[in-house]
Design brief:
single chain; 273 residues; mainly alpha; two-stranded antiparallel sheet; 48% helix
Length: 273
């Protein structure tokens, strides 16, 4: 499962709570992404988080994708895949299906790009190809929410997660107050999410708190202007990606262990400890 989609589909949070802070995104990936993935599987989440971090300040889909790329090793297969999508999009800017065919040939059917994805051709949860389909929605959607979701969904494979990532990045550029009502009218703000203590509004509060902490830890400040409005002063960061890791040539085992304090927080069903 090293190169699979697990962290990529969970990584939105890392950019949402790190506006303009790509190195915070990378660091969060190294903490949480490594619980599930390695190499390209980790890079997929850092790429998605990097796009979110950029989307607070940029609305050009290509520039957002390029910002995500700067958060991962350029020599990784994941980065190669995203660069390919950009090239093929420029070659076929109005025909997303032509680009889809090229992605299918290289990243679904070629064994060199399926070394560590756990499923066969018709059910590919490799992070690279699904990351390509996120980018397809953003580039070919041209800032249109419906087209972004539609194209990313029709690309297939993990076709609930990919449009969710693509729409999340796009919606960050738009802002919650400016979203078309059809995307928020049925939002249930009261029901608690499964296996958590959070409903939607409580989750927003926590994310805002974490974002404030991230800005301040990165050397930024939160001030008030003459009208009493909060102004976040966020330092500009140059992303520093991880060294390259590929699971078929793994590095030494990391000394990643729970501390005694962390182990004490793990809850077990009665009688199973």
């Amino acid at each position: 499962h090293a190169d699979d989609i697990d962290y990529q589909i969970e990584a939105d949070f890392s950019g949402i709570i790190a506006p303009g802070l790509p190195n915070t995104v990378i660091a969060l990936g190294n903490i949480f992404g490594r619980l599930m993935n390695y190499g390209d599987g980790l890079y997929g989440g850092q790429f998605v988080g990097g796009m979110y971090a950029e989307a607070f300040f940029e609305n050009d889909p290509l520039k957002i994708v390029e910002a995500g790329l700067r958060c991962i090793p350029a020599e990784s297969q994941y980065a190669e895949c995203i660069r390919d999508v950009i090239v093929w999009w420029k070659e076929n800017p109005t025909d997303w299906q032509a680009t889809w065919e090229k992605i299918e040939a290289k990243y679904n059917r070629h064994p060199d790009y399926r070394r560590a994805s756990c499923m066969k051709e018709l059910a590919n949860i490799d992070a690279k190809i699904n990351g390509a389909y996120i980018v397809m929605g953003l580039l070919y959607g041209k800032g249109d929410p419906d087209q972004t979701v539609l194209i990313s969904t029709r690309c297939g494979q993990d076709s609930d997660c990919n449009p969710s990532n693509a729409a999340g990045v796009l919606f960050t550029t738009i802002g919650a107050r400016q979203l078309p009502e059809r995307f928020t009218a049925k939002l249930n703000r009261q029901t608690v999410f499964s296996h958590t203590e959070y409903n939607f509004d409580r989750l927003v509060e926590v994310c805002t708190k974490l974002a404030r902490e991230a800005v301040q830890r990165a050397g930024g400040r939160i001030e008030q202007d003459d009208q009493g409005r909060e102004v976040w002063l966020i330092p500009v960061q140059k992303p520093v990606p991880n060294p390259l890791e590929q699971c078929w040539e793994p590095g030494p085992v990391a000394d990643s262990r729970f501390t005694p304090e962390e182990r004490n927080k793990i809850l077990y069903p009665p009688g199973e400890k």
